[in-house]
Amino acid sequence: MEERIRLNKVFLREQKQKKAMYGRFLPVLEAKKQQLLMRLSIVRTEINAQNLLMGEVMAEIASFGPVYRMMEEILRYHISIKEVRFFHRNIAGLKMREFRDVVFDEPGYSLFMTPYSFDHVLSKTREAISLREKIKMLEQQFRGLEKEFRKTSQRINLYDQRLIPQCTEAIRKITVHLQDQQAAAVGVAKVAKRLGEEASYYSQF
């Protein structure tokens, strides 16, 4: 709801202070918006790159064919995720999770009881799982950045298109009103002075 304009000097001072404050906030928000936009572009590029890499790894896993299916039973115990590790990064004031790596359970296995290619198959499967978790975290980061970008853009529009123009218009109206009052007061003073002078003149007779 728009604030009612009070035509006095106190409200004029308040509006000037508000306009100055919004003017200080606006460049900060614009800089944040640009930072978020840049980071969104970087994350989008990274997601595309990781998806391409995932496609390559999955194509290699698919090439194992029947050998992979033969190992599925034993693989299950070696691809169980123990922990997805990450660190936090500050991006435009946001605390974002950045993927580090995946820690898998290590139940151990006998080299004599597994096929010769088991190590390679296990390595590629774990790589695919790690990529999946990395992509998932990147997509979460992208959504968080996108949400903050929208909020920042809305705040910029609020200041630029509504609050600052409202202050400017209020300042204009109050200034005009006070100038009119001052002009009227000067006019009244002149009339009063003239009437006083006339009264003084006629009192002599």
Give a nutshell description of this structure.
With 205 residues, the protein is mostly helical. It contains three helices and two strands.
Architecture overview:
- This protein has 205 residues and is mostly helical.
- The protein has a domain at 27-162: Helix Hairpins (Orthogonal Bundle), CATH 1.10.287.3240.
- The chain has helices at residues 9-63, 66-75, 118-202, and strands spanning 81-91, 94-104.
- Strands 1-2 form a two-stranded antiparallel ribbon.
- A hairpin with a 2-residue loop joins strand 1 (81-91) and strand 2 (94-104).
- It starts with 8 loop residues before the first helix and ends with a helix.
- The model has no long low-confidence stretch (mean pLDDT 86).
